[in-house]
What we know:
Blueprint: E1 3-12, E2 24-31, E3 46-53, E4 64-73, E5 77-87, H1 93-103, H2 109-119, H3 123-129, H4 142-151
Parallel strand pairs: 3-5
Antiparallel strand pairs: 1-2, 1-4, 2-3, 4-5
Helix pairs in contact: 1-2
Amino acid sequence: MTVRAKIVYIVYPKKDKIELDDYIIAKCSAPVEDVPQEYRYGGKRDVSFSIKGKGIPSTKNFDLLLDGIWSFDEKYGLTLAVESADIAPPSDEEGIVNFLVMFLDGCGKASAKRIYKKFGQATIMVLQDAPEKLYEVPRLKKKSVDKMIESF
Length: 152
């Protein structure tokens, strides 16, 4: 069962730069319907739980898609031992703009907002399927668009 979750804070390791192959423990939050029935409690909309594992993107800016084995740990409470983790495609304007700024070289916040204004919710799909459409976005320089396409 895949759960879409957001990292609230990193418990371990306590360092500024966390690499993808580092073992991490983090506190997460997810919609109650994404958590297995036996671990739902209190009728809350969101459930807090811990995640443990390697290969977990340590971003707080984007939701993660996590798969793994659920258990109850005495120290960390409800815990997902992560077997696979990916950054979830953002679905709202703020998430898409942040995604563009973070993952497209040469794309600042103003450019990202222009791209979103042009393509809206389809922005990520346009990048994947027809990145050359970025040349259609008003006030983006060709050199910047070249850099963005190359980096994606």
